[in-house]
Write a structure and sequence with these properties.
The chain is 45% helix and 12% strand. By secondary structure, the chain is α/β, with parallel strands linked by helices.
């Protein structure tokens, strides 16, 4: 069986989800190819979008917040709608790529890719089954322009009202969870004994004390925010209960240097790392995580039954993730009036609070999200198509790639 996964490089989440899906499909003996939609249409455009996304989410968050909110609240019939943008961006090369290997299904991890597939389906250019994936705990703007696709995977059944509001029918909605790497599905860290064993195993290499409460601080793959200042503030907390810290700087080398300098003078044991491939192990060892609320990181934390303290959310999607996690009792959130020190102090002095959060996490965690999706896709591939599209016998090169007059 062979699947195509369309992703977009705008942050790491969409690509990480695509890789997680591919990894689980390959475990089931299937093949999966990942294609960056922007890169395929225009490498120059892909570079501009990737670099622009990093800039606005770090340096121009006010503008990003306003733009995201305007996109959320726009009327579907306004002139600059998603279907018109998709129609203009659609290329013969992309249609040919979808046709290339007679894929059993096409999966997409970003609504832009979904809008393109939506346009292809409406014009009868493809008959592949298509499955969209939400990579946050909310429907982004323009998902309403993806409803001609066959299915959409949502983080939880609690998003059913949002899906219906976007125009999806109940039979299209799959509450499998955000697909995460299979290694976060397995392993320890869900009981006090397992966390101690994880720290004891890591102690041989990392020097963690198996008996101390352990806090994991992450800033995403790019080490967003001033982590050194954040860690220094946490290190200064005065509480009867001792604790230790793990700080992951990601690919931010200057932040790793600053954290290393802090580790030499910190009151508490501080382990620092750069970008590593054993975050799953670090989560196993931790009692809580202090993190930005990216869709993948929070889904991995949920799978590990790890209570969260949310810091520095990017406006827009990460703000919506924060709302979902807070409303479901899985996290605490810092603010100007509730500093990180106060959140952590509450967890240090109250095991009841920690256990209450873990109980709430168990209600929404989807540790086998990628596995559920893989099994669904393999079953889907083995299921004959019912009906066909009106132009199934026509080649893609017979179609003119111009704006569809019917989409105005």
């Amino acid at each position: 069986m062979n699947f195509l996964i369309l992703s977009v490089t705008a942050g790491e989440g969409h690509n990480s989800t695509a890789k997680a899906i591919r990894a689980d499909l390959e475990k089931h003996g299937a093949e999966a190819e990942i294609l960056d939609t922007f890169e395929y249409i225009s490498p120059e455009l892909a570079k501009i979008i990737a670099e622009g996304y990093l800039f606005v989410t770090e340096k121009a968050q006010g503008a990003y917040r306003i733009g995201y909110r305007l996109a959320e609240t726009r009327r579907v019939n306004e002139k600059l709608d998603g279907m018109q943008m998709a129609s203009k961006a659609l290329s013969k090369e992309l249609v040919d790529a979808v046709h290339a290997d007679d894929y059993d299904a096409v999966v997409f991890t970003h609504p832009f890719s979904g809008m393109l597939l939506n346009t292809m389906k409406k014009r009868g250019l493809i008959e592949d089954r298509t499955v969209g994936i939400l990579t946050d705990f909310t429907f982004h703007p323009f998902w309403e322009d993806c409803t001609a696709n066959d299915y959409v995977v949502v983080p939880d059944r609690l998003l059913l009202p949002q899906a219906r509001a976007k125009g999806f029918r109940d039979e299209q909605i799959l509450p499998f969870g955000i697909p995460i790497n299979p290694k976060f599905r397995d392993g320890a860290g869900k009981t006090p004994e397992e966390r101690e064993n994880a720290r004891r195993g890591a102690r041989l290499r990392l020097g963690l004390d198996p008996e101390k409460m352990t806090m994991l601080v992450m800033g995403g793959s790019m080490g967003y925010g001033n982590m050194a200042e954040l860690v220094e503030r946490i290190d200064g907390i005065d509480a009867d209960r001792d604790f230790q810290l793990i700080a992951v700087a990601g690919r931010n080398e200057s932040m790793k240097t600053a954290l290393d300098a802090l580790a030499k003078r910190s009151k508490h044991r501080l382990l620092t790392t750069g970008f590593v491939d054993y975050v799953s192990t670090l989560m196993d060892a931790a009692d809580c995580i202090i993190t930005k609320p990216g869709g993948l990181t929070t889904s991995e934390s949920l799978a590990k039954n790890l209570p969260m303290i949310i810091v520095n959310p990017i406006p827009g999607q990460e703000g919506r993730n924060t709302e979902f996690l807070l409303n479901n009792g899985c996290a605490m959130a810092t603010s100007r009036t509730v500093p990180v020190e106060e959140c952590i102090y509450q967890l240090l002095v109250s095991d009841v609070r920690l256990e209450a959060m873990r109980s709430c996490i168990r209600a929404v965690a989807k540790p086998d999200s990628a596995g559920e999706l893989s099994r669904f896709l393999i079953t889907l591939a083995a299921t004959p198509r019912v009906g066909s599209y009106p132009h199934e016998n026509r080649r893609a090169d017979e179609f003119a790639f111009i704006e569809d007059p019917g989409e105005h």
